[in-house]
């Protein structure tokens, strides 16, 4: 029972090494001529240890490039490789500047343990230095009338190459930088810093500027999409103070027709229709009464009127006057 316990105690110092190892990203890709920073994380048991950065995949044949126990150069801008340890965050960072294509390969960040029976704790990463072009933002959005800026980066081998800004599908629209590395007109400004950055500024954007463009250096090119959005419209209210010769009339907006108002109006219409119908019936009754009275008049009177009419016609031939006696009882007419 005692022997397994002793073996367990002897393995305890190795547990942190397996649980809190040095770690970093397995691969990095960087444009030629640009810098690269690689963070290497470690466990708290390594806070006071020496950290290093070397090139190679085997510790025995790894070429040391930077160590935390070496004095730093007075001119840090000229340093090819620099290392900085932050024991509070438990990370040390390695920065490599002005990378060339020949700098591609395997690298190692490690913690120097020391001792005959203890190996250094290390992590490996593969760095690939590529040449070509890249863009900070391949999709840009700008408001109509405003300006946007495109930043295209190129590798060192294209420093002296011809730089262009073209609209995709129309090579006749290409704008080239001059001998001083610049070009400018009313809508576009191009500037080449002759190191690794080509800057294009599109000014006074219009809706027709929406589309795909090419940023190129030598035979390398990269696509950029520009989207122009409409300028927001603002409503302008103009107020004027009425003078004595002006009168301002306010007409309230018409009230909407609702179901209740329509019902009230329909009741009024029904009442008017009933009244009009009654008045029409009364008028027709009066007219019928008059016609009936005329039709029922005494037929004797009608005969008298007819006789008088005939008498008037022959009055010139008669010498004596005629007297008419009307006997109502017999309804006969006698003339003498």
Explain what you see.
Helices cover 20% and strands 35% of the residues. It is an alpha+beta fold and 336 residues long. Its main location: membrane. Residues 1-24 form the signal peptide. It is found in: Membrane.
Spatial order of strands in the largest sheet: 1-8-7-3-4
Q: Which percent range describes the beta-strand content?
A: 35-45%
Major sheet summary line: 5 strands, mixed
Shape: elongated
Count of alpha/pi helices: 4
Rg over CA atoms, rounded to whole Å, is 57 Å
**Contiguous uncertain segments of 5+ residues:** 11-18, 244-250, 321-326, 330-336
Features:
336 residues, alpha+beta, five-stranded mixed β-sheet, five-stranded antiparallel β-sheet, 4 helices, 20% helix, elongated, disordered C terminus, signal, Ig_sub, Ig-like_fold
């Amino acid at each position: 029972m005692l022997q397994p316990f002793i073996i367990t105690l002897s393995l305890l110092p190795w547990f942190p090494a397996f649980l809190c190892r040095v770690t970093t990203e397995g691969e990095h890709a960087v444009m030629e001529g640009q810098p690269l920073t690689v963070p290497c994380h470690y466990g708290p048991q390594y806070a006071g240890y020496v950290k290093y950065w070397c090139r190679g995949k085997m510790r025995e044949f790894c070429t040391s490039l930077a160590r935390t126990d070496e004095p730093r150069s007075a001119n840090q801008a000229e340093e090819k490789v620099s290392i900085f340890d932050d024991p509070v965050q438990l990370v040390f960072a390695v920065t490599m500047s002005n990378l060339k294509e020949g700098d591609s390969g395997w690298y190692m960040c490690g913690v120097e343990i020391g001792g005959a029976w203890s190996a250094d704790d290390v992590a490996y990463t593969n760095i690939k230095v590529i040449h070509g072009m890249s863009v900070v933002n391949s999709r840009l959005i700008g408001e109509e009338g405003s300006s946007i800026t495109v930043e295209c980066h190129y590798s060192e081998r294209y420093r002296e190459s011809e730089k262009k800004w073209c609209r995709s599908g129309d090579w006749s629209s290409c704008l080239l930088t001059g001998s001083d590395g610049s070009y400018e007109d009313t809508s576009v400004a191009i500037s080449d810093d002759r190191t690794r950055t080509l800057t294009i500024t599109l000014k006074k954007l219009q809706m027709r500027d929406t589309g795909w463009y090419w940023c190129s250096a030598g035979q390398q090119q990269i696509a950029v999409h520009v989207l122009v959005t409409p300028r927001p419209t603002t409503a302008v209210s103009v107020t004027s103070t009425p003078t004595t010769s002006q009168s301002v009339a306010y007409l309230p907006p018409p009230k909407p027709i609702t179901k209740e108002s329509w019902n009230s109006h329909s009741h009024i219409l029904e009442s008017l229709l009933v009244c009009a119908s009654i008045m029409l019936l009364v008028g027709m009754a009066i007219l019928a009464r008059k016609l009936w009275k005329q039709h029922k008049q005494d037929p004797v009177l009608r005969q008298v009127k007819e006789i008088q009419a005939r008498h008037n016609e022959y009055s010139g031939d008669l010498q004596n006057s005629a007297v008419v006696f009307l006997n109502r009882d017999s309804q006969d007419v006698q003339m003498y």
